[in-house]
Amino acid sequence: MPDSILVVDDDASVRGLVVRILRSWGHAVIGEAGSVAEALTYADARRPGIALVDIGLPDGDGFSLTRQLRAKPWAMRVVIFSSDADPSNVAAAERAGAVGFFPKDELLSPALQRLIEDSADDDR
Amino acid sequence: MIPDEVRRLAEGQAALRRVTSVAASGAPPQTVFEAVTSEASAVLGGALIALTKFEGGGTDSVVVAQTGDHVAVGARLHLSGDGVAKRMWQSGRAERIDDYTGIADATTATDLGVRAVVAVPVHVDGRLWGALSVSSKADPPPAGTEDRLAVLAEIVAAAVVSAAARESFRALADEQAALLRVAALVAHRAGQIEIFEAVATEAARLIHDEATTLVHYEGNRTFTVLAHRNGPAPVGTRYTVPVDDGGTSNEMMRTLKPARLDHYDAFPDRTYYSRKFGVGSSVSVPIIVNGRLWGALGVVNEGRRLPADTEERLGKFAELVASALANVEAHAALEHFAARQAALRRVAELVARGAALGEVFDAVATEASNIFGESPAELFQYDGADCTVVATCRSSVPVGFRSRADGDSAGARVLRARRPCSFPALDETDSAGPREAGRPRELNGGASVAVPVVVEGRLWGGLATTTRGEPPADAEDRLAEFAELAAAAIANAENKEKLRASRARVVATDNEVRQRLQRDVHDGAQQRLVQTVLSLKLALDAADRGEDTVELVREALEHAERATVELRDIVHGILPPALARGGLRAGIESLIAAAPVPVDVDLTAQPGERLPNDVEVTAYFVVAEALTNVVKHARATRVRVTVAGIDGELVVEVTDDGAGGADTNLGSGLTGLTDRVDALNGTLTLTSTVTAGTTLRAVLPLPDADAG
């Protein structure tokens, strides 16, 4: 069974768009969460291999969620995204343990697609 | 001419020449007196000659010179019985008694064993000064003796007159020299103590070093010893003269003229001086400065009669020294004034420099203590129920001590009175502070003086001190000056704190506004635009694959439209374009268009279509905040907005007919508004009565149209 992908964003319409993009890339098992708490619950239940995490969340931020997810007892690749394209987010995402950072309007980029596809060769 | 007669005449002429030359040489009167008596004796064939001086208004006759040792020099002859002296005092002329044996009460002559006496008067300045007499224990002196004595009596008179003149000159010179020495001290600004001591010393010197005391009159019949020369009472002694006292002080106070009392033993129980200091004889002369009794010079001894000219010499000196003492007093007053100003300046400089309140408080307590000769002073703050001591000087009360404001302390009293007050100091009530338990309750002669500290019309606290002695008449005024400085410092500090808080709020508000704006833009318009971009990219991908893109393009359009609306709302929140474009009227109209409550607007008295930008924006926010509050809290059915220009000010008023009872302590929204209004030097007031609605009123000064 392929690893599931978790999409975390408090804006449902953005989540919808991201899910649609992932589906267009051929991923079928996708979970959604609107907050840090929902994300952790989903993660524990489904052990996703990949998470796409927005920075601004109502009960925390994407960086801290990334750290918590990376501390789970299974390997998980986290990609952080935001509508704020501030370059400093790249370094912050790296420090939090994410494999990459993408501005939201570049979520269709092949680079993101590659990052997600590469999960199959990951060092799990 | 008979040869004997010629010889006698020649001898008489020679004797006259000798006496005249002695007198003319300026010899002392006593030498002249002795020359006169011995020459008279020689001329009259070795007769007993006496020169006597009347004293005591004709009651006594004192022997000043004599021959033949028939009577002692200095002997005082009481003119009680009949005799030539007594007769002369009455007649003023030469008198002769050829035989005393026929006179019953001739006590003096009988005592001296004299049978006959011829005496001629010595007139000085038209006044009967004394008598030159020849006495015989056997035959009466021959006829013509009177004439021969009369010539010599004139020489005595001349000698007395010239000696008196010399004495008078010397006295004047002495007085001038004494005064000069005092005046020099005054001129060199010597200390008061030094000057007073000099006055006492110089006065004593003028009257042959009799014990002399300089006293200051304190009022209420009370004197204080300032200085003395061998006087009976130490410096600083205070004494009050009883109303019925028989001494010289009492008489001097009554007449304001020199007074003398020679026989204190005549008033054994009545004189204060006599009882207290064992004084037997005294002279008091007043020192009058600027028309009032400043003090006195007193001379006292223990029974010996003071010289007759004591009053005169001391009186003259007192008159001269009065002006010098007036200078000393004026100078002291000036120094006092200067010290007071310096103290005020020290505190005022601290206040002006914006020194820390604690430093100003300490300075105020210190100077308040210094005013009244290092008395304990406390500055305390009042919080509506208690007094808390915030600064002290020379006080046993610790800083931080709290006491009830309804007690009997000076602090409590002044807070109730809300004006300066003074009252006799009781040890238990002489300050705002605590007293040791069990300490006896006693009057210490001092007074508690306290003044309120009023900061911008509000009772802040008080300043209290306790003097050791009677406080000066202007004690309250002087303390109040420091209380005012303390109040100014407190007002400064409070205003500075208000300004600081206002600035902090402005900064906080600014940060808050930025954060909200950032959040609004990020969560709203930016998201929508991102979604628009993503949807369009998905549509492009779909088009590439030849799929239907209509749905994706419609989504993109929806996102773009929502972004537009959200951006418009955000921009409107920053500053409504209507306000910027069309002024206050347009701004208010855009506000009420969205208001869920009917709003009546009266802008007819608005001074102009466009107002200064600051005023327009602030007035707009006043209306916006008021309408927000009406909608949130008032449950109003109608709101009225009025904007009018009145006397160079823009008055903005928003009134509703709602529930009222709003908290007039200006909530956080209104605090921000207050800062805005304050920044324009305007005022913001909220009036809210339960069931009678709420009115928010802002008055904003308009810049002078002419000046602009």
Question: What features would you highlight for this structure?
Answer:
heterodimer; A: 124 residues; five-stranded parallel sheet; two-stranded antiparallel sheet; 7 strands; B: 708 residues; alpha+beta; Beta-Lactamase; six-stranded antiparallel sheet; 23 strands; 23% strand; rod-shaped
Strand content of chain A: 15-25%
Largest sheet of chain B: 6 strands, antiparallel
How are the strands of the biggest sheet of chain A laid out side by side? Answer: 2-1-3-6-7
Individual helix count of chain A: 5
Report mean pLDDT of chain B, rounded to a whole number: 82
Give the C-alpha Rg of chain B.
52 Å
Helix content of chain A: 40-55%
* Secondary structure: helix percent of chain B: 40-55%
Order of helices and strands of chain A: EHEHEEEHEHEH
* Global morphology of chain A: globular
Brief description of this entry?
The complex is a heterodimer of chains A (124) and B (708). Chain A has 124 residues and is of the alpha/beta class.
